[in-house]
């Protein structure tokens, strides 16, 4: 079972859309806390939904997979280290019992978890898919 992730930063719309199509993504799960910022470019909610509709990709905005605003602020302003962010965020996912929605997200279509970070190394999308894989080891993670 394939689960992909992607960040929109430093990607053109063409590169972004091609990556989704080449990996047969059928459901994009937006796990950003804020998805309407002018800084989001083509990934602003309404524009993104339209693009995905043209590509025949389902769109979900899933706030249960997003960090809290205070946690995001703390890590971005370097008030906490990445390790502390990681532990706190994983605790939050466990507290929210996000694994109970896995079949909805991973079900019948190849999912792609969207965030803004260019690379997954210090991004919560990586933590989300690794957390979900703990509940289903068949999940193969591919970062686009």
Instruction: Return the CATH architecture.
Output: Alpha-Beta Complex
What order do the SSEs take from the amino end to the carboxyl end, as H and E? EHEHEHHHEHE
Percent helix among the residues? 40-55%
Strand fraction? 15-25%
Number of helices: 6
List the uncertain runs: none
By DSSP, the count of extended strands is 5
- Which CATH top level class fits? Alpha Beta
CATH topology: Protein-Tyrosine Phosphatase, Chain A
Task: Domain count, please report it.
Answer: 1
Tell me about the largest β-sheet.
5 strands, parallel
Organism: Brevibacillus fluminis
Protein name: DUF488 domain-containing protein
InterPro entries: DUF488
Task: Summarize the structure in words.
It is built from six helices and five strands. With 144 residues, the chain is α/β, with parallel strands linked by helices. Strand 2, helix 2 (45-54) and strand 3 (58-61) form a beta-alpha-beta unit. Helix 4 (82-96) crosses helix 6. Pfam families: DUF488. InterPro entries: DUF488.
Provide a concise account of the structure shown.
The protein has about 140 residues and is of the alpha/beta class. It has helices at about 15-20, 45-55, 70-75, 80-95, 100-105, 125-135, and strands at about 1-5, 25-30, 60, 110-115, 140-144. Helix 4 (about 80-95) packs across helix 6.
């Amino acid at each position: 079972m394939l689960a992909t992730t992607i960040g929109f930063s430093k990607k053109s719309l063409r590169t972004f859309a091609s990556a989704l199509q080449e990996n047969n993504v059928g459901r994009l799960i937006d796990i950003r806390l804020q998805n309407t910022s002018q800084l989001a470019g083509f990934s602003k909610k309404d524009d993104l939904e339209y693009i995905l509709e043209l590509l025949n990709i389902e769109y979900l905005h899933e706030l249960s997979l997003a960090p809290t605003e205070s946690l995001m602020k703390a890590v971005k302003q370097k008030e906490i280290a990445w390790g502390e962010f990681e532990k706190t965020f994983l605790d939050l996912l466990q507290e929210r019992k996000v694994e109970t929605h896995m079949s909805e997200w991973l079900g019948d279509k190849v999912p792609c978890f969207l965030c803004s970070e260019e690379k997954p190394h210090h991004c919560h999308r990586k933590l989300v898919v690794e957390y979900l894989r703990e509940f289903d080891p068949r999940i193969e993670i591919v970062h686009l």
